[in-house]
């Protein structure tokens, strides 16, 4: 049903965007593991890039942006199919966010850091679940809660790193629900321009940000969802896969 499509669509989008939401304020460059050292020039570039991201985001308490999300689902080794959606997003530390999808199917995803609501206006229903109760695991949830450390949680390498372009690859050091993350940032300012998650099945979700605004002090009410009369509330148990 449409509500569960929204849940699946958002799960990977959330992972892809977490780095811009809360965690990078505490980011530091990762030290290469023994026997896996990067060239000195690349390591220095990664250090500079992560430091730029840190400077950019350590003073950010909230962030608003437009986004375009492109998801490619790979089935049975085939070429996969791409789906594109867009909307607006608001993040606020610690762990608050609001995704408003405008097209192709309007939907709303809201979290106050403790609860997550996924609203499907077409079917007048909202799914509610506790954040962390089986929805996400590993480093991703720590980033959401503002507790993540890049050097501790990820092995960081450069796919491209220069004065003109920075693209970093982040591989979780512990078991996670995704294989790796990619981030593209502005080399000078450290602003995140694009994030991509590759899950364990090879599915890819890319989120590109534009018109980013910071420290607008959004109201707390923006991050809750009081259901109006007539809206069916479905409370999902930890690990639940579908609605009753």
What can be said about the biggest beta sheet?
Answer: 12 strands, mixed
Task: Tell me what the CATH architecture is.
Answer: Clam
CATH superfamily label: Lipoprotein localisation LolA/LolB/LppX
Radius of gyration, CA atoms, in whole angstroms: 18 Å
The spatial strand order of the largest sheet comes to: 7-8-9-10-11-1-2-3-4-5-6-12
What's the level 1 CATH class? Mainly Beta
Order of helices and strands: HHEEEEEEHHEEEEEE
- Given the C-alpha coordinates, what overall shape results? globular
Number of strands: 12
> Which structural class should the secondary elements be placed in?
alpha+beta
Q: What is the count of DSSP helices, taking H or I runs of 4+ residues?
A: 4
Strand content: 35-45%
Q: Percent of residues in helical segments?
A: 10-25%
Describe the protein:
It is a single chain. It contains four helices and twelve strands; from the N terminus they run ααββββββααββββββ. It is of the alpha+beta class and 244 residues long. The protein has a twelve-stranded mixed β-sheet.
Offer a few descriptive terms:
244 residues; outer membrane lipoprotein receptor (LolB), chain A; twelve-stranded mixed β-sheet; 20% helix; globular
Summarize the structure.
The protein contains four helices and twelve strands. With 244 residues, the protein is an alpha+beta fold. The protein has one domain: outer membrane lipoprotein receptor (LolB), chain A (Clam), CATH 2.50.20.
